[in-house]
## 1
Amino acid sequence: MPKRLREVVALLRAPDASALFAEAQEVRDGVFGREVFQRGVVEFSNHCRKNCRYCGLRKGNAHLPRYSMDCQAIVQAADCAVRMGMGTVVLQSGEESALDIRRVGRIISKIKRLGDVAVTLCLGEHGEDDYRYWRDCGADRYLLKMETFHAGVHRHCRPGQTGRTRLGKVRLLQRLGYETGSGLITGLPGMTPEILANDLLALSQLSLDMIAVGPFVPHPQTPLGDSAAGSLEESLRATALLRVLNPKANIPATSALDALTPKGRELGLSVGANVVMPSVTPESVRGEYFLYPGKNDSSVPVVNTIRRLQQRLREAGYHPSSARGVSPAYCA
Ligand code: SAM
Ligand code: SF4
């Protein structure tokens, strides 16, 4: 095993990670200070043609009521995010087979006219022409998580899909000039510390502008519903390692951390994350964007959810920022 890989495995397995966490925090403070960038996520459709074994939106989940927001509702949700101080709007959905590429383009242009706001897309795998078109319409960023680079785990968790194809898409997005993000799910069934260490190093070689890592959270209506959840500690160590390896990348404290423990986001920030991505999807459909238990609470109005999160950030000693939050890695 190469020396670097051995070192990362040792850090994932060490009895105590406090030195790693302190180093990650110091690196984050050195680059971003106590500023936390806010991205409002509009989850505009839960239709999906794919069957990822971990995800509640998978095509095979017949229990999920499906929805698709109209253009006006999407722009309204984005407007709410901007008014609540988010410098970025993220448009996220399942991989719809009937996705209207031109309609998404019109929505991007409308959101860009709301103010000084960046638009991130998280719409899965599409062709070069579509990615290019959305970029021309004003999309700034694209998030496409690798989930894992390991061929066997990838094949098992994402039937019919390959890491090689996904990596090709990540590289394509970089060539098209997007601020590009990718990431991992930690603790997927079959993952070992060696596989995770290799994933962390592979991700760090891609010169990414954004990196998202969150624990696997089992969803009862999926084939992996009886599997164990990813460990919170392992996901925090993965976040800290990514911060040390990628000082200038934007790294979110993911909602999957909050799904495992009430102060999950604060823990993510304490180990090097510098971004939060609250859902700004309207209450009427938010509960149906049900990737995993604990993901979206539809009982609280969007405005209250955001205010509560901003309050949590302040209480933990951070400054919720309204800046677009371009990655210094992208500016360089
Ligand atoms: N469909 C697009 C795609 O797959 O890239 C974008 C939306 S997808 C719902 C967003 C992310 O949700 C995925 O990249 C995956 O990492 C995460 N996700 C889905 N199910 C999950 C689970 N059970 N536990 C943790 N993360 C999960
Ligand atoms: Fe669809 Fe994305 Fe869920 Fe896979 S992770 S089933 S592509 S929404």
## 2
Amino acid sequence: MKIIVKKDYEQVSQAALEIMLDIIKNKPNAALGLATGSTPIRLYELMQEDHLKNHTSYKNIESYNLDEYYGLSDDNPQSYYYFMWHHLFNKLDIDKKNIHVPSGEGNIEDVTKHYNELLQQHPRDIQLLGLGSNGHIGFNEPGTSFQSTTHYIALKQSTIEDNAKLFFNGDISAVPTHAITMGIQEIMDAKKVLLLACGERKAKAVKGLIEGEVTEELPASILQKHQDAIIIVDEAAASLLS
Ligand code: F6R
């Protein structure tokens, strides 16, 4: 694992941009594993700015998102599909048919089977990750098997509370209680993994991820076993590291 500590959120996002662009420019048909949440928002803005200014092409890029709330349709403003469209894809020249987010609707078995097959057929060149304050990656909550593939999961109360910030008026009662998430095995299948974490609220999980034992109780700790994992954190998130 390569650990990079940057001063603040802006610098973390700039460093992540360089890594993303290196892949996109060198492999115009790269498959990107993408994340939602507050952490990648600035990175996505920078990708949009770069595209508008430098015309980096996404024409043949494919994207595979980590997760989706269960019970929300693509056009629901709180869905992760909608999030991705508004924070990233709407300003890029990406082909809509190359955008993949697990469906938050329909028969759970069908939805998970379809996404598993898709991921098997399309290995990711990079998987971008945020980090839950409880150590989750994707929506793989503590206790999820390292061998897991795409599955339906009940969100922990702490995740529901953390995620309320992205809901209208921070309304916790509006946050879905379940999600469909890419599994840990599928995250580990990506050639490169790039995890970003910022703020003091992430410091404990960052310490566990980097210095703790590899345990399913802290899903992100599995990244210690990935052959090409880059962890970029700001000083606040790094504050508990020894
Ligand atoms: C999002 C995701 C989650 C978030 C994590 C951190 O697709 O899979 O694991 O990355 O909950 O969220 P933020 O960035 O809002 O702190």
